[in-house]
Amino acid sequence: MTEKGGSEEQAKNDEEIIGYRQQPGKIPFSRPGSGGKNRFSEATDSELIPSSQGGSLKQPWGPHKHDEIVSGRVIGKPTALVDSSWKVTGQAHYGDDVRLPGELIGRIVRSPHHYAKILSVDCSKALELQGVVAVATGADAKNRFGVLPVTKDEHAMAVEKVRHAGDLVACVAAVDESTAREAERLIEVEYEILDSIHDMRKGLENSEEPIHDRGNYHIGESNIQKRVFQEFGDISGMAQSSIASHKKSWLFAGVNHGFTEPHAVVANWDPSGRLTLYTPQQVPHYLHRALADVLEIPMHQINVHRTFVGGGFGGKSDPFPHEMCAAILARKSGRPVRITFDREEVYWVNRGRHPSRIEMNLHADEQGRICGIETDALIDGGAFASFGHVTTYYNGVLHTAPYEIGAFHYTGARVWTNKPASGAMRGHGAVNSRCAVEVGLDDLAEDLHVDPITLRLANLLPPHSATITGFRVTSIGMRECLERVKIESGWEKKFRNLPLGKGIGIGCGFFISGSGLPIHWDPNKFPHATVHLKVDMDGGVTVHTGAADIGQGSDTVVAQSVAEVLGLPLDMIRVKSRDSDTSPVDLGSYSSRVTFMNANATISAAIQIRDKLLDATVEITGADRSGLVIGDRRIFLKDDPAVGVSYLEALHKAQEDRGALVSSGAYRTPPMGKTHKGAAAGLAPAYSFSAYVAEVTVDVETGQTKVDKVWAAHDCGKALNPLAVKGQIIGSCHMGMGQVLSEEMRYGRNGNLMNPDLLDYKIPSVHEMPEVVPIIVESNDPEGPFGAKEAGEGPLLPILPAVCNAVYDAVGVRTSELPMTPEKVFKMIEKRCRTEGVSDPTDLECPSLEYSDLQSILEKRGDEHRLRDKERRLDEERKDYYNGALFGLDPSVPPDEVDPRWEVRVAPDEEYLTSPRLAGSAWKHIERRHLEGTK
Amino acid sequence: MKMPPFRVLSPKSLDEALHMSRDLSDSGEAFDWIAGGTDLLPNYKWHINVKSHVISLSSIPELRKLSGNHIGAMVSINDLAEDAVTHPVLAKAANSVASVLIRKSGTVGGNICLDTRCYWVNQSETWRESIDWCYKCDCGTGADCRVIPNQNTLCVATYQADLAPVLMCLDATIHLASPAGTRSLPLCEFFELDGMTRNVLESGELVTHITIPEDSAEWSGDYQKLRQRDSWDFPEAGVAVLWKGISSSGPESLRVATTGLESIPSLHLEETKEALSRWRGAETIEDLAESIRKAVKPVQNTWFSPSYRRKMVKVLTKRACRDLLVS
């Protein structure tokens, strides 16, 4: 075929397949054909095959183990999500779109009280109402559940007590919504009101009626759900060597995920006694387990069907009581039951970011090293534990990098209060304390008279090192992120040089790329992710995975991985990820684990299919196997492309005598980290890094802050789909801007949530959204799939401190409260005016910067470290590097082995308890089991 | 979220609408007029003061007339904002209402008659039950006001509409119709305390149109609005300032009106009279702004605190007066 003919045919081919509903029979496959919408393979030009296939590729960040299977098809190319046509044409079915014949509508009766004992629930009037089919109360499901096995403290509906206004008391199923709502009002509940707790500080104190009772493990008689004490490094040396310190007490308001789709669920029991639960879930597997516990049936009797998810951000990553309610009502009524939330119900179930009080102290020594970080974080868990056990650790450990630090002291506590439960939200546990650290560093730089970016560049951990808490960090693109945003934002010219009201600020981020320990770790060697592939004679590849696509594009990344390894177009890959019946277990979409773990599992499954295809090719052609490469639906000799077979020919050969090819790939994290209590929290097979510069305008007379532009650099290892990565970066900016400027779950003086709706809960509108310049940094992670790391959560972290620091640059005020609404900024400006005796805020002076001698010392160290880092990432024989080397310790030995002062401590001593910090005072209580021992 | 059921009546003329209203009143049925529905329906969804009937005004052509001096009640806020004949300050205020989608449904009459808003009342029924209801929507419980407790005589919900202050400064006249006949009154006399009464409309009466004096083109000025976001949000404070006949001794006439601060919008006659009596340029504007700040008494029932809103009223007044100095 001539080239011309080819392009005409191609055009015709494209024309025929236009239209969002593909008509069967109209897709032009030539027979036997090569598969795919385009019936022609691309030319077998060896130029198009990456030189790494059958050879190795020299890269700036060193080679990668997946280089040799890269076919150059889809990885690294901007790719529309594979489910986008469903969504943009309105054909995606979300939770509330599921319609089963004979369905009933379920409604939930909720507590009007913050904290009360339930004396009685009388459903008789509701049951008498025409059209009501079933009611259920806490008595129908007494087993506890919770996302973490160590803190199961939830019930389907309240048993004995309600713990916050909006807590579930009973539920009812009726033939339609109006009847269900009427029935809801007919259920009579008698309460005995208890004293409720709303201030998280109160949660630290003993209470007559703690919100939960953990038996022997209860901490005193308090409402403390979890407490953490950690000391790493040379705490005693910190104060001595410090020449500049920063200290700030922060108050962060709770924020909600604000996803578009409210929770919705449909439950149906089929004639064989099996339950199918349709729900927009991020963690179908944990729900699967919880359902089995609560309903008291074996897991194999349940099929969890994940619908399209209309936004999750962590807000759909708990097993939820309303999911249990739907299943219970469906079991009682013998009919499918659908429950859809109103928006205020979304706020009542919440699981948003914890309201927090964080005290952040930072110390720098005369060489501009960060010789100490002391953090105290009290977090308000609301009424239930949710992910809080982990959040309490994350508020500490996730800000121990990317910097090399001399000492780290952390006290954290999470308390129960009578509010909707806090939980995991994008940037889980890392966002607030990261904001505090980065603002602190800005303040330290000001104190030291150095540039804040220079200060950061001179204190970075090198690639392939260990943090002070013992996290193994592999690839690090932090330095490149900082350097890129510095150049692209025009930092040198702007910083401390803009007129009053205009400012620029920097912030960095560090986040886990997949939690190293699964939440349920039994059996011990159970993989984190498993993927099954099936390839039959039609050539299409069916992928079975339990990874939950919540809009982040996990189906796409799985399809891309298969397409890349097998040299196939994306339309030949079909991902089946919805039903737990057919999907192998995947732990779910949380902790930014999916791309890293699921794509790794996919690649390992696809390699097995690839091997079989290569074997078949050798059998047909007799070619040398080591010379074979895979191009677009063709397998051929790299040096002599004429020798080869089409993909289908190879596939059909491989299927002889055994039919469809199947394979199973799995991923499990390598053993890592230290062994102290809590060492596993924050461990991840890889970490992402980011640096943002934000430019803002502050109206000094009103305090209104407008973010004008953001330069956002994120190290995601390798952008498998740059389009999706940029989307994540821009979306993260929007979400983080909401938290820093306007979003807040505001509680009124009687403890009620005042703004459980999207008019009064101020998510930034399109008018508030700045131009975002996404900058992708690719550090080629050695263990990531094709070098990739996460890009879903880490990009949120830096925007908060970047905006805070920019506001300081603009008007010289530093907030210690988020969101910094115009009102709060104005208050700070007023205060500054008073202190400086200025009557008109437009007469205020901007902060200025004159370098001290330290600046050149830091610049020199930064330059040296740039070389050090480059050497380390390319040197395959590299030695270990432990945090502490910057402070003169042997870099290749864990510091606590060379210096006893660096030993890890996980419990406070008597002396500390004489004057503990706020969250640290949680350690004043004695656990009941120890109390009884002393009696 | 489901609205309780109600019957919709769709009259084709004003006469028919008034007949329907009389028939409903005679048979003892409660009803609401519905224009664009952007205020009423969200409240219905929250089960706030729901009626068994609504009379839709959308098919009555005579309410849609728009000219330089005549604004029909059913003119959409968006049409008002974009029409070339609209006074520029009124167009600016109209353009700042909510979002473009809401402006396309929302009407001038609806905006003038906007229900007052309060954190403690604009909530779902379950939520209001959890605070034991409130004075404005007590559901027969005799509940107290939650903003200023221990007083059962005054609703302090806030009037948060943008058009009224500008129209008041333009000295607009509002025209009403009821089965008993028609009447007209200056817009500033239309509003009446408290947050529940809101205005002088009698049962069965509706706004037909607004007229603006012939000299409106001679008036210039500005409308300034305080809110968290540049879209969707109701005004937390709004200040309209209009003047005419500027000379070295100051403007010949000056009017200032505010919204978003109390249960009704206010035209600040005394403060402007004082300012005009001894005009000293920037200094007077500063004093005027301060006197407006002192004149308003917001309460804690919206997004921003009362003290911030008052301080901002001063800033907004000064900003709205900016062109007064330049010219």
Descriptive report:
With about 950 residues, chain A is an alpha+beta fold. Chain A has three domains: about 45-90 and about 525-665, Aldehyde oxidase/xanthine dehydrogenase, molybdopterin binding domain (Aldehyde Oxidoreductase, domain 4); about 95-195 and about 265-310 and about 315-350, Aldehyde Oxidoreductase, domain 3; about 355-515 and about 675-865, Aldehyde oxidase/xanthine dehydrogenase, molybdopterin binding domain (Aldehyde Oxidoreductase, domain 4, 2-Layer Sandwich). Chain A has 23 helices and 29 strands. In chain A, helix 10 packs parallel to helix 18 (about 800-810). Chain A is globular, with a radius of gyration of 29 Å. The radius of gyration of chain B is 20 Å and the shape is globular. The longest helix of chain B is centred in the C-terminal third of the chain and has 15 residues, at about 305-320. The mean pLDDT of chain B is about 95. Chain B has helices at about 15-25, 40-45, 75-80, 90-95, 100-105, 110, 125-130, 165-170, 270-275, 280-295, 305-320, 320-325, and strands at about 5-10, 30-35, 55, 70, 175-180, 180-185, 205-210, 220-225, 235-245, 250-260, 265. Chain B is about 30% helix and about 20% strand. Chain B is built from twelve helices and eleven strands. Chain B has a domain at about 225-325: Enolase-like, domain 1 (2-Layer Sandwich). In chain B, helix 9 packs antiparallel against helix 10 and helix 10 packs antiparallel against helix 11. In chain B, strands 4-7-5-6 form a four-stranded antiparallel sheet, with no helix packed on it. In chain B, strands 8-9-10-11 form a four-stranded antiparallel sheet, sandwiched between helices. By secondary structure, chain B is an alpha+beta fold. The chains are: A alpha+beta (about 950), B alpha+beta (about 325).
